[in-house]
Write a structure and sequence with these properties.
This protein is mainly beta. About 10% of the residues lie in helices and about 50% in strands. A hairpin with a 2-residue loop joins strand 17 and strand 18.
């Protein structure tokens, strides 16, 4: 009887360990309502954590480092890829010994097994978003390396392209170690109105409002956001975004599969 009980416990502990995280909800995550956690010259904001249609693990948080804050020791992630977006300030991002100083609007893509560190090298607090993710499919380090490996994009080097409704800036469009496809851009809508008609696609998508007022509809439900707010849209959900303010509306958009 004891052996049977032990076998039952061990087997069910295995099932518990294999259980998937709950999927994160589509909708809006408001900057002003995010819970904060203060540490050593830092403030953290948890935005979401769970799984998604393509990821077994997805976490997004924001970190604010005070001026002169001591950086965390260099470290690597074994099976997690990361996307870093500079919200405010100047970030020194070091990947595998190579450092870049990135101003507001810049981006870093950190593959698994890449040694990394982040430091505030500006005269004001540094705030950045971090998206951490693990694919439900097998990680493919070689695919990510062939697509360019670690990526550091300085916003000052990017060139906007005019569109019929404002402008757009392309950041990257490529495979990664965790994604068969990953794309990021910035859209600016100069006037009130939609960016495009409501649509759907197999990629999941995140929108982060940089400036102005935006309204995102997801499966018929409307959400309104301002600077710092984040919209999350799951795979194949019908969605559309509009500028609802009198001033230009600008936002990051990134999607993956």
């Amino acid at each position: 009887m004891k052996r049977l009980l032990l076998l039952f416990l061990v087997t069910n502990m295995g099932f518990i360990g294999m259980a998937q995280l709950k999927q994160v909800d589509s909708g809006i995550y408001k900057w002003a309502e995010l819970p904060t956690k203060e540490g050593n010259q830092r403030v953290g904001r948890k935005i979401m954590e769970g799984s998604s249609p393509h990821f077994s693990f997805l976490e997004i948080h924001a970190t604010t480092q005070d001026k002169g804050a001591k950086p965390a020791p260099p470290h690597t992630q074994k099976n997690i890829e990361e996307l870093v977006i500079v919200k405010e300030g100047r970030l020194k991002l070091t990947m595998n010994g190579k450092s870049d100083v990135l101003p507001e609007g810049s981006v870093g893509l950190i593959p698994p097994l890449t040694e990394q560190s982040m430091e505030n090298v500006g005269d004001v607090p540094l705030t950045y978003y971090i998206m951490m993710f693990t694919s439900k499919k097998d990680m493919d380090i070689q695919r990510g390396q062939e697509a360019g490996g670690p990526l550091s994009i300085n916003f000052d080097d990017l060139k906007p392209e005019k569109t019929g409704k404002g402008q757009s800036i392309s950041y990257f469009e490529r495979p990664t170690a965790m994604c068969e496809y990953f794309e990021m851009h910035v859209t600016q809508l100069d006037r009130k109105g939609p960016s495009h008609k409501p649509h759907s696609h197999v990629e999941s998508e995140i929108i982060i409002v940089v400036e102005g007022e935006a309204e995102m509809t997801i499966n018929g439900e409307a959400y309104q956001g301002t600077k710092g707010d984040l919209f999350f849209v799951k795979s194949n959900e019908i969605h559309g975004i509009s500028n609802i303010g009198e001033n230009p509306c600008r936002y990051y958009a990134f999607k993956w599969k």
